[in-house]
Design brief:
Strand content: 15-25%
Largest sheet: 6 strands, mixed
Number of helices: 9
Number of domains: 2
Structural class: alpha/beta
CATH architecture of the largest domain: 3-Layer(aba) Sandwich
Oligomer: single chain
Order of helices and strands: HEHEHEHEHEHEHEHEEHEE
Shape: elongated
Helix content: 25-40%
């Protein structure tokens, strides 16, 4: 049975008035970065399905009687494939429960929101999308920097280094050009591949790169290096997921020697 046919069967057995589903952005980690709308949904929810990266402090803001269900995924090993997540959130709503699907960061940025929206709408369920602060914004704020700078970087590119198996490589040459800040999500395991891709695309290897891990949390770490040195720095530094990688190509860039220094909150 396909996931869609399973959802339709569930719909035929459901209560006449399904509950709503809210796809809520939990932000990068710190609970006080939640929006007021996100907080309202958490305090009204009957059941919350939450990701691996959602901070426990965020869950403590939920309605005390709300059921909390972990549906986290690890790259390459998951008991919660996307089709199963779609099915359980829809099934809960079809029983008349108010459902929150709580996602780290912003649900619309590499959060697989489209699949969950389609599943809910196929079952006739109303969906509210609540934006959250994405990792790129939180990381730069924590570092005391801006994502863009007038006269230097007037183009911001958000991209993922991890695509579906079998997908072609990203268009690295199109992503990064003078005047660009490239924020790479899910790039820890792909550093060697995307660095080689950028080199082949003619990107200067002395561009400044900033890595930020666990932005906005007590475990935050960051380092600044160059694109050429990035694979070695990542291997030596032990930066885990979630980490975001910024590559900055300013309009006034001039070739320079490699620079490496630690600027993290924690070691």
């Amino acid at each position: 049975m396909t996931p869609l046919s399973m959802l339709r069967r569930l719909a035929t057995r459901a209560a006449p008035q399904p509950g709503p589903i809210a796809l809520v952005g939990a932000g990068p980690g710190a609970a006080d970065l939640l929006t007021l709308r996100a907080l309202r949904h958490l305090q009204q929810a009957d059941v919350i399905f939450y990701d691996r990266l959602v901070d426990p402090a965020v869950l403590r803001l939920a309605r005390p009687r709300a059921e909390k269900v972990f549906v986290g995924k690890e790259v390459g090993a998951s008991d919660w494939p996307q089709a199963r997540i779609n099915a359980v959130i829809v099934a809960a709503a079809l029983r008349g429960r108010r459902v929150v699907r709580l996602k780290s960061g912003d649900p619309g940025i590499f959060g697989r929101a489209t699949e969950e929206l389609e599943a809910a709408r196929a079952a006739g369920i109303a969906v509210d999308i609540v934006p959250g602060i994405t990792a790129a914004s939180a990381a730069c704020a924590s570092l005391g920097r801006s994502l863009t700078e007038r006269g230097q970087t007037d183009r911001l590119m958000l991209a993922t280094a991890t695509c579906r198996p079998g997908d072609p490589d990203p268009d690295w040459a199109g992503m990064l050009r003078p005047g660009t800040t490239l924020a790479l999500y899910m790039g820890v395991r792909k550093v060697a591949a995307f660095t080689a891709g950028l080199r082949r695309a003619g990107v200067p290897m002395d561009l400044e790169v900033t890595i930020v891990s666990a932005a906005s949390t007590a475990a935050e770490r960051s380092t600044v290096t160059t694109l050429a040195a990035l694979p070695a720095v990542m291997q030596a530094g032990g930066f885990p997921n979630p980490s975001i990688i910024f590559i900055r190509w300013s309009k006034q860039h001039r070739a320079a020697g490699a620079v490496l220094h630690l600027v993290g909150k924690a070691v």
